[in-house]
Design goal:
By secondary structure, this protein is an alpha+beta fold. The protein has helices at 57-63, 122-127, 175-187, 230-242, and strands at 19-30, 38-44, 50-55, 72-76, 79-82, 94-97, 103-106, 136-150, 155-162, 168-174, 195-204, 213-216, 222-225.
């Protein structure tokens, strides 16, 4: 008799000979390809439970071509460790790591949820009613570019992001994310609202008179700007229906604070 797949919710570190029937709903690569690269992913099972999975450099060469976001798999055998890092992409108490006996096979499986974004309410950000160690997804429209700094050692842009309730949060993009944002502004000046979607964003705790704010995580975030994704298209449509006016974003470098 074929073994029934284990459920993600029951993973507690007591066994590593797991069998999981899952969909990869998020996949990203960290490090330098061919040298220090590793894959990280979030998988989901039929109960809509999720867990963070890591495929380190020593195993990635064997599996990189097989791992595809959105596809469904049966996966066997992992190292199970506590999910207790400084920042977590899932709230499951454990995470999984590929080992030498891990087996991954792609199958056409029904009943597995598609990717769902974990958007948080700006009101909860403003009052600090969220877990600061749990990464979240953010969507909003750029209201005003406040500051930018570019140097060989650091890159930073700060802007105000607004939701559909006209609430504003401070939003910081660093390094490659900063460059991606500034390049978009240079290439799409005066083309209408700039809608930003950032996955695995970090909530920065407020300090003194400074409220909580948002920034990219160092390696886990994905930045999408005005692309034809369903959440962005839906946000843009609601923006228009609500008649929310967006002031012109200053895109000329000579007008920005630096």
């Amino acid at each position: 008799m074929e073994r029934i797949a284990d459920k993600i919710k029951i993973i507690d570190g007591s066994k590593e000979t797991l069998k999981l029937a899952v969909r990869i709903i998020d996949l990203w690569f960290v490090g330098t390809p061919g040298r220090s690269e590793q894959a990280e992913m979030i998988i989901v099972d039929s109960d809509d439970d999720q867990i963070h999975v890591v495929c380190k450099q020593d195993q990635l060469k064997a599996w990189k071509m097989d791992l595809k976001e959105g596809c469904t798999y049966v996966m066997h055998n992992f190292k199970v460790t506590k999910n207790d890092g400084q920042y977590r992409v899932c709230d499951h108490p454990y995470k999984l790591t590929f080992i030498g006996v891990t087996v991954v096979r792609q199958y056409g499986l029904d009943g597995l949820p598609l990717k769902k974004y974990r958007f948080v309410d700006f009101s909860d950000i403003i009052v600090g009613q969220l877990q600061f160690d749990l990464l979240v997804d953010i969507i909003g429209v750029v209201d005003e570019v406040v500051f930018h700094h570019i140097s060989p050692r650091s890159k930073r842009v700060v802007f105000k992001l607004m939701n559909l309730s006209n609430k504003l949060v401070s939003f910081t993009l660093l390094d490659d994310y900063c460059v991606q944002f500034l390049e978009y502004l240079d290439q799409h000046e005066n083309e209408g609202p700039i809608i930003v979607l950032l996955t695995n964003a970090r909530i920065k705790e407020g300090q003194g008179s400074y409220p909580c704010s948002i920034s990219n995580s160092l390696k886990d975030s994905k930045l999408t700007i005005n692309e034809p994704l369903a959440p962005i298209e839906e946000f843009n449509q609601k923006l228009s229906e609500l008649g929310i006016e967006i002031r012109s974003v200053l895109t000329r470098r000579s007008l920005w604070s630096s």
